[in-house]
Structures are given as C-alpha cells and as structure tokens.
Design brief:
2 copies of one chain form a homodimer.
Chain A lengths: L5 E5 L3 H13 L3 E5 L2 H5 L8 E5 L7 H10 L7 E5 L4 H9 L4 E4 L4 H17 L6 E4 L2 E4 L4 E4 L2 E3 L3 H12 L7 H8 L9 H13 L7 E4 L3 E4 L2
Parallel strand pairs in A: 1-2, 1-3, 3-4, 4-5
Antiparallel strand pairs in A: 6-7, 7-8, 8-9, 10-11
Helix pairs in contact in A: 6-8
Chain B binds a DNA duplex through helix 6 and helix 8.
DNA sequence: TCGTTTTGTAATATTTCTGTAACAGGGGTG
DNA sequence: CACCCCTGTTACAGAAATATTACAAAACGA
C-alpha cells in the first residue's frame, strides 16, 4: 500500500549528501548516495524511483550522467537536478536531457520534498515508457517483467528475472555475488552467497543457449556477455 | 448526482499538460495524463469520460491513437483534439476518426472548459455507441456491464465484471493485485490483496472454460490470455 | 423492515518459489 | 598426485504465494 520510494542522490559534496540523506530518509524515503557519476553508474540505476543529480561534479557532470542514463541505459527514471548555477543555459540543458524538475541551491528541504513528491505523483499516474532490451532473439521487457526468446515467453520467477536484468543492464561487467545479493534481496533477509549460484543455475537452464552468455569467473562473480 | 468526470490528457508537451491538469482539476475534473499515445494505450481507456488528444506528438499521432481506440478497443469515448495546425485537412482527418470537437492552440482555458462541458453534456443525452468486446464466444458489453457466453447471459457481480474487463482490456499483461485494487476499489476502502484472489476465483467459476484464460502467476499477478 | 445478493475475512488446501545442503567437477598449488 | 577452494548442479524441505471454501458482515431492493 504505502510503497517506499527509492531515491539515489548523486553529489560530490559529502556534507550536502548527508544532510539530504538524513532529511529525506526521515521523510520516509529510501536513500542511497553516490559521490560521483561513475559511482552512480556502477549501481543498478534501474531500481530507483527518482534521481537527484548535482549538475556540477568533479568528473562526470550531472547532465552527462543523465544523458548516459537516458541514452545508454535507456531508462526513464525521473530526474531532479540540483545546481548552484542559475543561468538559463543550464536550465535548457537540463530539460533537453529529460529533467523532470530543477532546483537551485540553496534550497529548502521542504521545497525539495514537495518537488520530489510532485514528480513521484506525476510518474505514478503515467505508465512508464516501454523499457525493452533486446539481445539477439531474446527480449527483456523491464516493465512487464517478462522475457521472450524467439517470441516464445520464458517463464522466469521474480528472482530469476531480477538477476537476469541486473546482469544484462551491466552487460560486460562482472558483478560479485555480494553485489547481486545486496541489490536483489531485501536487507532484512540473510542468505548465503551460494544462493546466487543456485538461482543462476536455474536461470541458465530456463534461457537455453543464452545461458552461455552468463559467464562465471572465479573470484569475480557473474557477467552477461554475448 | 454530481459525478466527477474523468479526463485523460495525452500530450507530449509536459508543460502544457501541467497547465491543463491544474486548471481542469480545479474545475472539478478528475485528470490523468499520458505523455504519448503508447502510454495512453497502456491505460484502461475505458474508464475515462473524455479524452483530450494532441494531434502532433512524437511517436503515435493523436489521430492514430484515436483510430486505435475506436477500432481496436471499440470505444466511443468522446474525444477533443488539440492542435497547433489549422488546416482543413487536419480537421477532416479529425472528424473522420470520430472527433467530438476540435481546438487550435493557443486556446484559452475558459474556452476549453466550455467545450468540454458541451461535449460531456451532449454525450449524456445521446445513446452511447455499443462498446462490446468479443473473445471467441464470450462477449463483454462495457456499457451494459453484461457478459454472455454463447449468447447465454452470465450474471457477474460488479467487482467480478470490473476485474474481468480490466484484465481483458489489458489482454496479455500481468496486472498485480495492487494495480487491480487501486483501479477497482475506491481509495478510502482498505481491503486485503487476498480479496482479489477471492473475486478471481468466483469469476473463474462463473465463466466456465474461459476461467482458464485468466492466468495467475506467483509474484506477478493476473493476466487474461486466450 | 426482511430477505437476498454482494462483498470481505478468515481458514484451509494447494501450488510455486526459494534456500540449504550435499555432491561432483575443475583448476590451481604445494 | 593429493589437496583445497571455488563453482555448477541437483534434490529436498521449508517458506511464501496462491486457490478455494465457508461463513459473516454489509449493501441492496422490495
């Protein structure tokens, strides 16, 4: 009923991050923080309901990050930009990239929370765009959480589907068992890392030849590669 | 007696959507927004009393969308088109598709509201076209909220009928218990998700062999598929 | 109002999903 | 080679989710 929204904050000012994290957490949001665009991309962005991105960051800028998320990952997560600059230009770049809102520092927490709720509410009534990933003859529909191979549906369980999509979204990167556990299993359940193995095995069996695309490497974890 | 009218706005200009949403909501309408034709189709169009469609949209045009709604879904919801273009040609296409009215941007909110009320008033007195969905030998009449199988009436209760039509209108898509609850039960009543199960069970029993078309999948919800 | 129908809850049966354990194989290392 | 660590797979049992039934409360109509 009252679902917890997951928000990712990406900002290299650690102090600000802490303040935001504390305040938003106490508003009932589930917060995660990344201190750079690179760090953010290492996460499965897909599982957040909203991103708060700082425009000015060392390394990758917030806009660059947003662009990657939209274009390369093909995700349409709502994004709110935080910026110290107030030029028209920035605003424009932000919205071109598909920003859902824009907030100039300094801003009040109250205002931020209001904007966040507005964006989430908006997203609620709107059906998300098709998020379909195609790998040869295999299609993952992230919305419907369905998989087809040669147009034939493959019945995956929840965990199997989540593991598969996590691997596919990070195609080419080895994800450790721990990373997979952290992301897919809820915090309060404690399970063995071996569990990932078992689920991977089941998954492999179900997706036939594509099972070979899931590489396991000793000491590294798993990776999808075709 | 003073029923709230549900209006769906489909337009890819988010700013305009917001303005419309705000203004129409404060006129007492119940507004939902979709930012593309595809998004709109993902909704149960059936539950709206009026559609406001932008003609020019990325992806599916408003005309295309209207056409699908009329032909494929077989719905006769009133439609008002919004357009920046004012050519005769457009007007014609619009009315061919079964437009109820036509408004060129820029228009005043006041004018829009007037037209909306006019269309709704008109729809009220006029006999609505049949909205009948046929699945093999099963017929759902969305107007009369009646179902027949082999011409024989099947007496469904209100909840049963709504669940069935929701599933049928989203044929092939798994709908979670929560989605079903949200749409069919009013917000202020709090009921268990188990309730959906019970109603599905009753429904299945009543519609005989078609009960098999209602697939239940652990962790995903229910789906109609034949 | 009464009787009927509809709807919700709770309890129970059943199915599906998931975690653990156990075992088998692979590959490196002493 | 023998050993150990890591991985892949299978089988089983416990857990979770779902289906169904029975009953009570609420809504509805006459």
């Amino acid at each position: 009923m009252n679902e917890t929204y997951k928000i990712l904050i990406v900002d290299d000012e650690k102090d600000l991050c802490e303040i935001l994290q504390f305040n938003l957490a106490s508003e009932g949001f589930d917060i995660e923080v990344a201190y750079s665009g690179e760090e953010a991309l290492a996460k499965t962005i897909d599982r957040f309901d909203l991103l708060l991105l700082d425009v000015m960051m060392g390394g990758m800028s917030g806009f660059k990050l947003a662009d990657k998320i939209r274009k390369e990952l093909g995700l349409s997560v709502p994004i709110i930009f935080l910026t110290a600059r107030e030029t028209e230009n920035d605003m424009l770049t932000g919205f071109n990239v598909g920003a859902d809102d824009y907030l100039s520092k300094p801003f009040s927490i109250k205002e931020l929370v209001a904007r966040i709720r507005a964006v989430l509410r908006r997203g609620k009534s709107v059906e998300v765009k098709a998020k379909v990933i195609t790998i040869d003859s295999m299609e993952l529909d992230l919305n419907r959480k369905s998989v087809t191979i040669d147009r034939t549906p493959v019945l995956l369980t929840r965990k199997e589907f989540e593991i598969l999509s996590m691997l596919v979204l990070h195609k080419g990167k080895y994800l450790s068992r721990q990373e997979i556990l952290d992301r897919i299993w809820s915090d309060d359940v404690i399970v063995t890392e071996r569990n990932v193995d078992v689920n991977i095995a089941r998954l492999r069996k179900k997706i036939g030849e594509f099972g070979q695309c899931i590489k396991g490497r000793s000491g590294y974890g798993y990776c999808f590669e075709n």
